[in-house]
Amino acid sequence: MTALITAVAEACCFSCDCCDAHPRDLESSAASQVLFNTCVCHTSYMLDATFSDLEPLPQDDGPVPVVRIAYPDGFEEVMSYFRRVVVTGECSQRTLQLSAEVIAHNAANYTAWQYRRRCLEAMHSGSSNAAREQAWREELAFCTARGRENLKNYQVWFHRRSCLARLGSGPEAELEFVAEILRDDSKNYHAWGHRQWVLSSCGGWEGEAAFVEGLLEEDARNNSAWNQRYFLLQHTADLSSLSVAEGEVDFAARFIAAAPGNPSPWNYLRGVVEPLGYSAVPRVRLLCEGLLAGDAASGAGRVAAMSLLVDVLDEGGDPAEQERARSLCDSLEDLDSLREAYWQWRRSRVGAQQPTSPYAQ
């Protein structure tokens, strides 16, 4: 491993003020910077013997470019050499180096990420299982280093999945990696999407409920966490089960009681109960009636409780309750004046047995 790091470091790091400032101790963090090529200082490939046999392939902007892009120093040269190896189809250590430098300049360059996967597959097609696994572990480390700098980059996350799929590792370490990312940005949907992929592909469902609940305790308005709880239910529970629905109503009710005006648990409650029908889960009505009878719900909380109660009363089909639903719509025109037109429309649809959204088909 040390020999590989030495070779890559020597190949990747040319003479520049930035890199000369780093000690060449391969056990240091600076060595990782060299290995993962996080330096984007402009250094000429023409002066490096590693690339002396390559003829750069410049970008073809046509004979009369309309607007010439002002690329940063070094970018055009790196891309010119990279284009050449892509055209020739070369898969080698130096092409991995080139792709790393392309990524250092532009982490969203999906061709560079794809070419890294292609190179690794070709270079280790005849290797032992241990050598192949080591190569992909090193690539995962490279991806981690780049990923921490580009946490909302599609290509980084896709490449990470590719590495994990080839390694066939268990879910524990990767779930912890994503948890670390979410601790800094709990609504990073790239990280949430990756977490769902890990759970679906590698397992680890047993600890997810506690993880999500912890995030909701910190921020009950985290819609990503509510979505993750529903995703968990879809894969580990029977959503047509009354006991499951009742349990989730109780779960949502706990957060509603703490902040009645928070729309997140209300929306979650609807999503869980609507497939069964509100009449099948009486505690939904009890929740709404209880909030409206007390002083806990005011403003947005009162609007949320009344809004859900309109749907509950309408669904039952009882004429008297549907008349009450219309009366609630009248009140909501004043309480929720921004959506006055919607509540007028909703009142007109009471008893129609049609979708309660004007956008539903």
UniProtKB/TrEMBL annotation:
This is Protein farnesyltransferase/geranylgeranyltransferase type-1 subunit alpha. Belongs to the protein prenyltransferase subunit alpha family. It is an enzyme of class 2 (transferase). GO terms for cellular component: CAAX-protein geranylgeranyltransferase complex; protein farnesyltransferase complex. Signal peptide: none annotated. Pfam families: PPTA. PROSITE patterns: PFTA. Its cofactor is Mg(2+). It comes from Emiliania huxleyi (strain CCMP1516). GO terms for molecular function: CAAX-protein geranylgeranyltransferase activity; protein farnesyltransferase activity. Its EC number is 2.5.1.58, 2.5.1.59. Keywords: Magnesium, Prenyltransferase, Repeat, Transferase.
